[in-house]
Amino acid sequence: MSDAHRFSGKVAFVTGAASGIGRATALAFAAEGARVAILDRTEDALADTADAVRRAGGEVLVIAGDVSEPDHVEAAVARVVATYGRLDIAFNNAGVENKAAPVHSIELAEWDRILDINLRGTFLCMKHELAQMVRQGGGVVVNTSSGAGVRGVAGGASYAASKHAIIGLTKSAALDYAKQNIRVNAVLPGNIESPMMDRFTDGDIQKAIDLEPVGRLGKPEEIADAVLWMSADRGAFVTGAAISVDGGWSL
């Protein structure tokens, strides 16, 4: 249920915001009163998300950057703080899927690509976000892991490894900052209607639907609802959690 004032006065930073879960979550934060900073690799990719936020009457800061590049991430967080004076919520969502292959066939460059974006990128974002939250006295971080973060995936070792590691990173950070009014959690999406899922299935979405016990794909907005709950005061006693929103896929 939407509450136009739930995040009034808050600043939310969303990575991977050009499409899918990131776009839906940026729009949801804006609809509930937050000022939103959105990051993806190019400003062109973010144009549709930014326009949708503005059409809804929200305020948006567009930042082009690559989460696997330390300078890009440091500059992005600094720009959010310079523009809005603080950073209350960070949703570290940027990520990529792997090219399906058994472990012995994975090229090192492909392994590095997945880990650099999914895991290194999440760590770099957290490093700078958390430093700011410590300075200001509190905040919330939500990381995107996956159902593949709690189970194996045939042909998906690099992706599963990155998403398992994000859960460990999330739980450790939650303990590091628990006494500093900072909560750190992870959301674990299943098979979601998104451009990533289209690429992963080569357009044969039925293959992904057949894997879902509930018989359908999830919607990006359903993941956004979970992220907003974890970021809001109603989730104030939740930290270090890895919350599955996957239609039972990971059971």
UniProtKB/TrEMBL annotation:
The UniProt keyword set, sorted, is: Oxidoreductase
Q: To which species is this protein native? A: Sphingomonas aurea
- The question of whether Oxidoreductase is a record keyword is answered with yes
Provide the protein name: Glucose 1-dehydrogenase
Source organism superkingdom: Bacteria
Per the UniProt entry, the Enzyme Commission number(s) are 1.1.1.47
Query: Lineage of the source organism?
Result: Bacteria, Pseudomonadati, Pseudomonadota, Alphaproteobacteria, Sphingomonadales
Gene Ontology molecular function: any one:
glucose 1-dehydrogenase [NAD(P)+] activity
Q: Which family does it belong to?
A: Belongs to the short-chain dehydrogenases/reductases (SDR) family.
